[in-house]
Amino acid sequence: MKSSSKNRYWLGFDLGGTKMMATVFDRDFNIVAYRRKKTKDGKGSRGVLGRIVETVEEALQAAHLDHRQLSAIGIGCPGWLDLDRGVVLNAPNLGLRNVPLKKELTKDFGCPVFMVNDVDAGTYGEYHFGAGKGVRCLLGVFPGTGIGGGLVYEGKLFRGRTGSCMEIGHIHMQPKGRLCGCGRRGCLETVASRLAIAAEAGAAAYRGEAPHLLELAGTDVAGIRSGALASAIKAGDHVVEEIVAHSARDLGIAIGSVVNLLAPDMVVLGGGLVEAMPGLYVQQVRASIKKQAMRPYTKSLKVVVAKLGDDAVVMGAAALAAEYKRNPRD
Amino acid sequence: MKSSSKNRYWLGFDLGGTKMMATVFDRDFNIVAYRRKKTKDGKGSRGVLGRIVETVEEALQAAHLDHRQLSAIGIGCPGWLDLDRGVVLNAPNLGLRNVPLKKELTKDFGCPVFMVNDVDAGTYGEYHFGAGKGVRCLLGVFPGTGIGGGLVYEGKLFRGRTGSCMEIGHIHMQPKGRLCGCGRRGCLETVASRLAIAAEAGAAAYRGEAPHLLELAGTDVAGIRSGALASAIKAGDHVVEEIVAHSARDLGIAIGSVVNLLAPDMVVLGGGLVEAMPGLYVQQVRASIKKQAMRPYTKSLKVVVAKLGDDAVVMGAAALAAEYKRNPRD
Fold first, then answer.
1. Quick check: A244 and A229 in contact, CB under 8 A?
2. In the prediction, which pLDDT does B2 show?
3. Which of A91, B158, B180, B328 could be B151's S-S partner, Cβ–Cβ 3.0 to 4.6 Å?
4. In this structure, is residue A229 part of a structural domain?
């Protein structure tokens, strides 16, 4: 009995910019327990690493499990990753550089650890358990502070040679556009991310054109979150509605270009802006894709809202860990 | 002896807008014989179909083969295709609509027939026999009258549900750009195809700014081919050089966006503009990709010129026919 109950659980980890989450799943991917923590504690790489280990330990305790009962850990991370070696090369939002996360976690928990890009994990989660179950070619797009993309093609994550790809936020949109975090100008993120919307809406609030937003969130781009934008629109800030709708149309134009390239069967939209404004925002994106992409690709294309919310990354990371354990990559 | 020599040959077919070509290959894909014909004879679908059959028959005769010695036919076609059913849904340049090519050829030659998009065939040809041999993720880009793209990912053509995809010519580039053949505005084809360059250079020639081009090719966009553009530049038409260089930079920007999505290991460039101006044109495209795409994707990216020229499509189509015969798609 004891030996058959061993190695039966999966652990999914979501390493986010503001919070981290560890979730324990049984063999059928039912949630057994989870724990969250804030990501940053001002102690740099070592601090983050320590909190990751603590969060996993606490999730295991909450599930009344010993780490020897873990079959594998899947960890979804942002930033530039070396997936095969399991190293976070550079994750500026987390202050991590050259952190051998896989090695550290393997040492601490004694089971295989698989690293995956967080947006890829979210997309794979939606493919496996959510809105895009079993879809042949599934494009995930997650507009938030930045704009991430992921692709599951014929059951497998599409990826670069040693890392992730599908950087839809860095599709070129405007020849003389605004400065992007990547150092170039006019990327999609400069016109359609939550940060781009916050900057434009913050200026409108400063000019007195968005009184509700000014009252709700002020003019600091850091504080103008998706929820505040949604509330300001509901309260009657038409200029905020126009800014959000315009950025949604731009997102649709970029997704339309990707549809012309990859001919996905479904686009699943998730992230903060989508969750806060599933009506207005998603309608605009959908209409813009249909207008931009070519008819043979759009006639059977579904554009839907993600189903798993905050669980997408942990579920996808755990499912990928299970997949990679069964079919190791070379 | 007779039975072992049966079913040993492959036939690749390239159905182009101006000419068609059938090439017979032995089991090791050495060329045994080939025949070309003009595509159009003014007799519509039936006329084109008849000439396809004739061209195949003549290539077989030239190879001293009976059609019973054919293992399979692979046919590369432009336009909208239903690959599984083997139907040309719509190929405006060829005047073909709803032509069940696979069924007709299977009937006439009694062997399996596989239909494939022509640009996909060219990309697969370069992957199998040419500049991109064995590359994990190979993006083929063929700027000509339009701009076609193809992707071979982990040994397989990337494709849509029932047809081809990778329509790089219809990536959105300019919010208020010129009218595209697809009905939208500002697609890559409107700024970087041979037709777009011909239109701009033709206007410059009309204004007296490109005297060599005027003498070589006149002002008719139909007559301003890649070779004429190259000759005019060589003869000293600086404005033509500027137009071509600018369009090459735009192509590089679009390919840069695709690199940010797909992280290919190699981009292989082919088609009329590349063949006519492998120096100037390719340098500009390469520099523009490196500037536009993100560093982790460009540092090991190779941007190279296609090697197979006019043989790419027939070779790729034949190799795909062999591949699909071995591993039938569901």
1. yes
2. 42
3. B158
4. yes
Instruction: Please check whether residues A139 and A182 belong to one and the same domain.
Output: yes
The first and second tokens of residue A283, run together, are 């309608």
A50 vs B162: CA distance, rounded Å: 49
Instruction: Give residue B266's domain range.
Output: 133-306
Same domain, yes or no: A296 and A220: yes
Q: What is the DSSP letter of A309?
A: G
The helix (H) or strand (E) run that includes residue A124 is: helix A118-129
Contacts of A153 in chain B (CB under 8 A): 153, 158
Percentage of residues of chain B with pLDDT beyond 70: 97
Q: Which of A165, A173, A253 sits opposite B261 (nearest CB)?
A: A165
pLDDT of residue B7: 63
> Strand B80-82 and strand A31-38: pairing?
unpaired
For chain B, which residues score pLDDT lower than 70? 1-7, 329-330
Place of tokens 């005027």: B214
Query: Both A272 and A202 in a single domain?
Result: yes
Candidate from A170, A261, A292 with C-beta closest to B294: A170
Beta carbons within 8 Å of A307's beta carbon, 6+ residues apart: A126, A129, A130, A131
Answer yes or no: is A317 within a domain: yes
- pTM of the predicted model, to two decimals? 0.94
User: How big is the A-B interface in CB pairs under 8 Å?
Assistant: 95
Residues B98 and B65 in one domain: yes
- Over chain A (330 residues), the average pLDDT of each successive run of 10 is 62 93 96 94 84 97 95 95 93 89 95 96 98 97 94 96 92 91 93 96 98 97 95 98 97 98 98 93 96 93 96 97 83
- Amino acid A59: pLDDT: 98
A146 and A217 part of one domain: yes
Q: Quick one: how many helices (H) and strands (E) in chain B? A: 13, 13
Do the chains contact at B261 and A297, CB–CB below 8 Å?
no
pLDDT given for residue B6 in this prediction:
55
CATH assignment at residue B269: 3.30.420.40
137-166 in chain A: CB under 8 A from chain B: 137, 149, 153, 158-161, 163, 165-166
The pLDDT of residue B218 is: 97
Q: Rounded to whole angstroms, what are the CA distances from B191 to A157, A248, A253, B324?
A: 33, 25, 17, 36
Is there a domain that residue A128 lies in? Answer: no
pLDDT attached to residue B100: 95
Count up the domains in chain A and report the number: 2
